[in-house]
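Technical annex B. To support the medicinal chemistry partners, we prepared a structural model of the target in complex with beta-D-fructofuranose, based solely on the information shown next.
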Amino acid sequence: YSYVPETVAETGITIWTFGEQLSRMTGFEIDAWCSSDPARPKLHFSPIRNWMNDPNGLCIIGDTWHLFYQFHPAGTDWGPMHWGHASSKDLFHWTHLPVFLHPEQNLWRLGATGGAFSGNAFFDRDGSLKLYYTERLPAYDLFEGYREVQKIAVPGRGLVKAETITEILEKRPPGVQHDFRDPKVWWDDAADAFRMVLGASIDGCPAVLLYGSPDGISWNYIGPLYHAPAHFQECGARAVECPDFFPLEGRWALVMGFVGYTEPGTGRHNLLYALVGDFENDCFRPISDQLQLLDFGSDFYAMQSFRAGERQLAMAWVFNWETRKPGNSVYSGELALPREIGLDERNRLTMLPVSEFDAAYGSTVIPGRSSGAFALSGTPFEIRINGQLEGARVKATSGGSPAFDVSVEAGILSIILPQDNGSIHYRNDIATDSNLRIIHDAGIVEVFAEDGAVCGTRRNYQNIQPDEVTVISSGVVEVYERKSG
Ligand code: FRU
């Protein structure tokens, strides 16, 4: 690679060394360098440079949030996966830290081409942090192409680097092909033992696997926690990725992505689905078989949630593999705004930006009438409409050219971007007497309706700095600028 391993000075200042391109930058210089790129979102996390995908190992230690993420330090495309690392005091302003975990770390195998894949943070009962993750080992198994095994990384002092790596699970259950990844581990009081879910497929059908362990190290297969309906396999789904399973307000929620799935009729893919139900005696019983589409925008994937005090928080990757940042962007991939997960009276998961958002990015009301045109200064902005949503339309433009268009017609909420060329695939039913929030940041459009029960995230790369937004609505309209306080 052109990438050179990094150091952290004893002073606590991060020194980030990136071959010729960026050398020995302090945190301040990194921030200045990142914000000098007008195309880089301001409210949303992005890597300093090069490729990122899934958020990993999310946790809070003391007053510090830690975010790890799938990172390819040698290029702006997906490649051998490392774990990037950043920390924050407020979930919005991040300090970029050295690469935490390397592929086949501590084995020093030359030219490792597999990767340290996604995984979760787990605090053991003695308070120690263990990061459970998947290692993809390439080409050892000639018939399968690659092999995925589960490992634990235990961080060294100051969480700078994964130090101890332990392989915990290699053997796949019968019928499970090479996709066998993305562990989420918890301590289960009822079972008085550890539990883990993994994404996989069984005889070709996407499934979530449940494992148990007395010590967190040796694991036994309990059985499938969930089998996807045949529809998913018929529409291209190969396996479940990034399964997330967590207790929420007396119930349990299962969130998962289906790799390879394309929705018939719309062509949408990269979609995440949720089920809410009860979990007893190692058996998950959804209240309804109807999967909830977690975000209809299709640029919101690989969500990972975690417990922080009384709240279940989540982050996800904003990307869809098809539309790419134009030309010579130094990085690829961003994260959606951190969201808090709730459960509504219809047992739907709800997601709204965490309360820290208001503290980090204060809202200044842009004066205007309840409906009409609002001039924008180029900073991120938010529009809220409360009450009657039917007939609402929010159209942002840049020099008169469309940037995005969000509307509600006959109870259907849609998000239209310039790249759609007339197709309106990004739509969802909503209750028209409710509420709508639209947040825009340099081309990332996040929409929340019905108190977060309906979410749509889309990434746009054209006209990303709108100078005007026109709001037509018979509801109560507020337009805010979102600036760092
Ligand atoms: C989801 C995913 C995970 C995997 C990781 C690899 O986007 O495919 O299943 O662990 O990305 O980068």
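Notes passed to the chemistry partners:
The chain has two domains: 7-354, 364-484.
The radius of gyration is 22 Å.
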